[in-house]
Design brief:
CATH class: Mainly Alpha
CATH topology: YheA-like fold
Protein name: YlbF family regulator
Number of domains: 1
Radius of gyration: 20 Å
Shape: elongated
Order of helices and strands: HHHHH
CATH superfamily: YheA/YmcA-like
Organism: Halococcus thailandensis JCM 13552
Strand content: under 5%
Number of helices: 5
Largest sheet: none
InterPro entries: Com_YlbF, YheA/YmcA-like_dom_sf
Length: 122
């Protein structure tokens, strides 16, 4: 086995260990449980779907006071929905953990490890 193959195998093993550690973490477990609860909550899912549809209508040029009013009402309902708030809080905590991880890796290798391209998650 060449030195490059050996190094690749070591990196892959370390990556598997990192992934297992991440998925076993309390932060990830809370995110996973909160996401599953959201998926299984039809009221919360409907609220988010309605909100996304209203936002899309606004982006498509249907900007009028009734759509704005409906969006504000939905925002209030979303803010009051425990399932949604739990999932959003868990997602924020996981994002913070991943950012800290990125910062540590970046420091170790002397360059930015993962750069945001403006995309989002969930």
């Amino acid at each position: 086995m060449s030195e490059v193959q050996s190094e690749g195998t070591v990196v892959e093993a370390e990556l598997r260990t990192f992934i297992e550690t991440l998925t076993d973490s309390e932060t990830y477990q809370q995110f996973s449980e909160a996401s599953e609860a959201l998926k299984n909550d039809p009221e919360a899912s409907a609220l988010l779907q309605d909100f996304e549809q209203k936002q899309q209508r606004m982006q498509d040029g249907e900007f009028d006071q009734s759509v704005m009013s409906e969006l504000k009402e939905l925002q209030t309902e979303i803010a009051d929905n425990e399932t949604i708030q739990r999932q959003q809080a868990a997602q924020e905590e996981l994002t913070e953990l991943l950012q800290e991880t990125n910062d540590i890796i970046s420091d170790r290798i002397g360059q930015e490890f993962a750069q945001s391209t403006g995309g989002g998650c969930c």
